[in-house]
């Protein structure tokens, strides 16, 4: 039988986040820690990591030269 509670490290591995972020991420979704996190609630999350501050790809220059229609 699977343990009904998950450790912070297990939750972090499942969600792909750092263990130190688990409490904040789950609290924002209404899941609190009770000697662990409820496995059923954590596995039911539809968690999508937010994109970080990366390079804007919508501003990249085009590869075509202007006026060269083929």
Continuous helix count: 3
In round numbers, the mean pLDDT is 81
Count every beta strand, where a strand is a DSSP E run of 2 or more residues.
2
Strand order within the widest sheet?
Answer: 1-2
In terms of structural class, how would the helical and strand content be classed? mainly alpha
Alpha carbon gap, first and last residue: 66 Å
Low-confidence regions? none
Instruction: List the helices and strands in order.
Output: EHHEH
Helix-residue proportion: 25-40%
What is the subunit arrangement here? single chain
Portion of residues in beta strands equals: 5-15%
The major sheet is characterized as: 2 strands, antiparallel
The gyration radius over C-alpha positions equals 21 Å
Global morphology: rod-shaped
Question: What is the gist of this entry?
Answer:
With 70 residues, the chain is mostly helical. It has helices at residues 8-15, 22-28, 39-43, and strands spanning 5-6, 37-38.
Throw out a few tags for this protein:
70 residues, mainly alpha, 2 strands, 29% helix
Describe this structure as you would to a colleague.
With 70 residues, this protein is mainly alpha-helical. The chain has a domain at 5-43. Helices cover 29% and strands 6% of the residues. It is built from three helices and two strands. The protein has helices at 8-15, 22-28, 39-43; strands at 5-6, 37-38. Strands 1-2 form a two-stranded antiparallel ribbon. The model has no long low-confidence stretch (mean pLDDT 81).
């Amino acid at each position: 039988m699977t343990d009904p509670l998950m450790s912070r490290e297990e939750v972090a591995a499942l969600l792909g986040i750092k263990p130190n972020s688990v409490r904040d991420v789950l609290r924002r979704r209404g899941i609190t820690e009770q000697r662990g996190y409820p496995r059923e609630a954590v596995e039911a999350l539809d968690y999508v990591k937010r994109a970080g501050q990366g390079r804007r790809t919508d501003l990249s220059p085009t590869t075509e030269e202007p006026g060269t229609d083929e």
